[in-house]
Amino acid sequence: MIVVPQTPAVAPPSHDPGSRIQDPGRFAFIIHPLRISDFARRYPVTRKLPERLVELAFRPVPPRMVSHITGIRSPTGARAEGWFIGLPLTPRTLMDSPLEFVYRRLIQCGRLAESLGAGIVGLGAFTKIVGDRGLTVAHNLRIAVTTGNSYTAATAVDGALLAAQRMGLEPANVTAAVVGATGSIGAVCSQILSRSVGRLILVARTRETLDALQARLRSAGPSTTLGARRADVRVETHVKAAVRMAEVILTVSSATDVLIEPEDLRPGAVVCDVARPRNVSRLVYERRNDVLVIDGGVIEIPGEVDFGFDFGFPPKMTEACVAETILLALEHRYENFTLGRDITLPQVEEIAALARRHGFRLSGFRRFERAIGDDEVERIRQAARHGRFAQV
Ligand SMILES: NC(=O)c1ccc[n+]([C@@H]2O[C@H](COP(=O)([O-])OP(=O)(O)OC[C@H]3O[C@@H](n4cnc5c(N)ncnc54)[C@H](OP(=O)(O)O)[C@@H]3O)[C@@H](O)[C@H]2O)c1
Q: How far is residue 343's CA from residue 179's CA, in Å, rounded to a whole number?
């Protein structure tokens, strides 16, 4: 029977503090296919089948251990090892199936993690969006659960502001837009951004929640002292209208379709696309040489890391939500760190501090599994300055 929690559960630490130095922290992380073509990497025959049929065929398939993750070693000497656990459900299956079914599958993943020896399990992609975002899963496991969203938020803002700086933009003078601003990641990112940019446009489909967030950010006061709001905060329900006004854009919406097309962006715009699936059309990369689009939250993990599984990143690199799970394992902090909808600023600051301590860092700019070098950023900057962009 699935027990639905009334309050966030916190798993007790399941380690001996005295043996921290010797013992690696142990974690697991749940992954799932983001699109139908991901099945074809392992099962080529699925390429020839209708999408719905593939989804239906995999629906009853239980989760399995995909790989053993080894070699994580922090500069502090702390070590960690872990396992990717694969759940063969697409975003559509996860979002459209009865919650009871999805929770049962996620709890199965967690039990597999427990049996492997993990002290904490991270929720990947849509497994952290569905239902109550990890609360029920955590309540039904003996190990801790985290969505990884605190570190995702920290690195998304850092990445966007760093990219803006490299494009010669001064945060205090820019208009930034957060697409998906009222979401779990979007709200705390908006809060952080509102401290540093000149104007901030909050974007989502639902006017009421946008207005509530705007009021919350405005109540932080118009002061420019550290920690208080600096930005002039507006709301917008039309993604394209907002994007056309912004120089810096953070996309953190849960839309399953592309929201931003090549013609939507201003020359010289910076977009940090955190959403999975991505909110920015691939055509932007192909047709606009005057905008800088980067993936959000790609982190280099310290040590001789072997993920044992190719998820499209270079060696040692992974997404911020995986990195948060690893950080908590390195600390032997087997607690439900980020669960549910609300992420607080102190949580984001705490995980960012842990990341600095363990030598985790943003891996430079990347997009679609490719690094963006300094020379490329400079070419984009020059193309924007001289109005030389490929016709769309
Ligand atoms: N790259 C990474 O490491 C990483 C890690 C964690 C999460 N993510 C991704 O980050 C995204 C956000 O996650 P979350 O947990 O914050 O989601 P969430 O809490 O469900 O929030 C989604 C936000 O998107 C808005 N939205 C949904 N559809 C929209 C549309 N068509 N147009 C405009 N706004 C739309 C929602 O507001 P309305 O419903 O009012 O429109 C809400 O503000 C997801 O794509 C997730 O997969 C990435």
A: 17
Q: Model confidence over 268-289: pLDDT tens digits?
A: 999 999 998 899 999 998 899 9
Nearest Cα residue to 243 out of 181, 175, 182: 175
The C-alpha angle with vertex 150 and arms to 3 and 261, in degrees rounded to 5, equals: 105
101 is written with which tokens?
């079914």
Q: What is the dihedral of CA 39, 43, 48, 51, to 10 degrees?
A: -30
CB 194 within 8 A of CB 218: no
81 close to 301: Cβ distance less than 8 angstroms:
no
Here the tokens at position 252 are: 């953190």
Please determine, for residue 296, whether its predicted confidence score (pLDDT) is greater than 90. no
Other CB atoms closer than 10 Å to residue 236's CB: what's the count?
20
CATH 3.40.50.720 occupies which residues in the chain? Answer: 153-297+365-385
Interatomic CA distance for residues 364 and 344, integer angstroms: 26
State the CATH architecture for 153-297+365-385: 3-Layer(aba) Sandwich (3.40)
Handedness of CA 41, 43, 48, 49 (dihedral sign): negative
Calpha distance 161→264 (Å, rounded): 20
Q: Which atom of ligand 1 is nearest to the CA of 155?
A: 3
Residue 130 is encoded by which pair of tokens? 């569905």
CB-defined site of ligand 1, < 6 Å: 125, 129, 148-149, 152, 179-186, 204-206, 209, 239, 252-255, 259, 274-276, 296-297, 319-321
Range 145-153 average pLDDT: 96
